[in-house]
UniProtKB/TrEMBL annotation:
Residues 1-108 form the CENP-V/GFA domain. The lineage of its organism: Bacteria, Pseudomonadati, Pseudomonadota, Gammaproteobacteria, Moraxellales. Belongs to the Gfa family. It comes from the Bacteria. It comes from Acinetobacter gerneri DSM 14967 = CIP 107464 = MTCC 9824. GO terms for molecular function: carbon-sulfur lyase activity; metal ion binding. Signal peptide: none annotated. PANTHER family: CENP-V_GFA DOMAIN-CONTAINING PROTEIN-RELATED, GFA DOMAIN-CONTAINING PROTEIN. This is CENP-V/GFA domain-containing protein. The keyword Amino-acid biosynthesis does not apply. Keywords: Lyase, Metal-binding, Zinc.
Length: 137
């Protein structure tokens, strides 16, 4: 699957695992995107940049990093530093939106009250997410 940032200076390819869209409500994602981030899981280590002159990596936590375009600011991916897990911005992919399914929300205990999705999703709290990452270390 191919993708790119808004300005087109950063292009990538990745092998998506499925069509399940995940939403993150953590404070960092909301500040980084001015909203929630919607992502698709990809095959670990399948993220390959074909144009990356504007690609920047932000060291956002002990175990994770975020990739974005330094020219237009598009959020592109979040991945574990050990490369065991990576997800990409669903809207940066050249993928028909009709093929997607909103599946889960993480950091649900950080979600502000002023918005909600109408369909039912799997939901995980911050503690549940951190437990998963600690199991993968």
């Amino acid at each position: 699957m191919k993708g790119q940032c808004l300005c087109g200076k950063t292009h990538f390819e990745a092998e998506i695992l499925n069509s399940d869209v995940h939403v993150c409500h953590c404070t960092m994602c909301r500040i980084h995107t001015s909203g929630v981030i919607m992502t698709l899981d990809i095959v670990p280590k399948s993220l390959n940049f074909t144009a990356n002159s504007a690609l920047k990596i932000y060291d956002s936590s002990e175990w994770g990093e975020r990739g974005f375009c330094s020219e237009c600011g598009t959020s592109l991916f979040w991945r574990m530093k050990n490369n065991e897990y990576c997800n990409v911005n669903v809207f940066a992919l050249d993928l028909p939106e009709t093929d997607l399914h909103l599946d889960s929300e993480i950091y649900i205990d950080h979600k502000p009250e002023f918005y909600a999705f109408k369909n039912h999703t799997k939901q995980m709290t911050e503690a549940e997410v951190l437990q998963l990452f600690n199991e993968n270390e």
